[in-house]
Design a protein that fits this description.
single chain; 268 residues; alpha/beta; Aminopeptidase; 8 helices; binds zinc ion
Length: 268
């Protein structure tokens, strides 16, 4: 009985020992499974974050295509290789014409529109040179020099008109009536008319009151050019239209310039 008891005690010792081995093995296995699970989890996490990064890049790239960030515009600019000079008439000590109350200066309207048109053209992938981008006086010869030295493709001078009586938009071209300049002017005139003008005064040749003279910028620039009179600053209705349709006019001018560049084969 004792022996048996010893024997059985000895058997119990083996059982306890094996139990410990099993427990140790089980713990070891649990640790191994835990480590493997952790590695798998981390690996899948990495792959998810990689996927997210790819997604971000894709979203980022599609966003970039639709954005107006300068670096994207530069990419487009290199493709089109078309340069347009936008000339904001007057500036600095030369205020241009003014309304009857002398509170509104032509130079300010011209600059505001020039900056807006320039932004839109750049969005369309066209290189723009502004003869002035602030309230600075620039001589007429210097404006022409800027365009000629840059070998620009098109030149558009922006102005407001004035008169005791008169309203509407008109666009001036050299009295030599060059076809390319006329096409540019007509496209801009049509675009203005589509937005809405008080009076479509059309494309005019020469200089106001003197068909044998020319506006300096139309005469001296070496590329197709025109001088846009964006309504009469002396006429209330034209000022209201200019303010109300400001962004539509800017769009219209930019689109008309782009269309002209296409038609004149300078958009390449
Ligand atoms: Zn002017």
């Amino acid at each position: 009985m004792n022996r048996n008891s010893e024997n059985s005690g000895s058997n119990r010792g083996y059982i306890v020992l094996w139990d410990r081995v099993f427990i140790a093995a089980a713990i070891f296995l649990i640790i191994i499974i835990g480590v493997i699970s952790l590695i798998v989890f981390l690996a899948s996490g990495d792959s998810e974050s990689n996927n997210k990064n790819v997604e971000k890049q894709i979203i980022g790239s599609s966003f970039k295509n639709n954005s107006s960030e300068p670096e994207v515009e530069e990419d487009v600019d290199r493709t089109l290789n078309c340069t347009v000079v936008i000339d904001a008439g007057h500036g600095g000590e030369d205020g241009g014409c003014t309304d009857y109350y002398e509170t509104r200066l032509e130079k300010d309207d011209n600059l505001a529109m020039a900056l807006e048109v320039a932004d839109r053209l750049e969005e369309l992938g066209i290189d723009v040179i502004l003869t002035r981008n602030d309230d600075t006086f620039i001589g007429l010869q210097e404006r022409c020099d800027i365009a000629n030295e840059a070998n620009a493709d098109l030149f558009i001078s922006l102005h407001r008109n004035s008169a005791f009586d008169g309203s509407g938009v008109e666009i001036w071209v050299s009295n030599k009536e060059p076809a390319e300049d006329t096409l540019l002017a007509q496209n801009i005139m049509d675009a203005f008319a589509e937005v809405g003008v008080s009076n479509n005064r059309g494309v005019c040749y020469g200089y106001i009151g003197d068909q044998y003279s020319n506006y300096y910028v139309n005469s001296v620039t070496e590329m197709p050019s025109c001088l846009v009179e964006m309504g009469f600053i002396t006429e209330e209705i034209d000022n209201e239209l200019f303010d109300k349709n400001f962004y539509e006019y800017a769009d219209a001018i930019a689109q008309a310039i782009y269309k002209s560049a296409e038609e004149l084969n300078v958009l390449y």
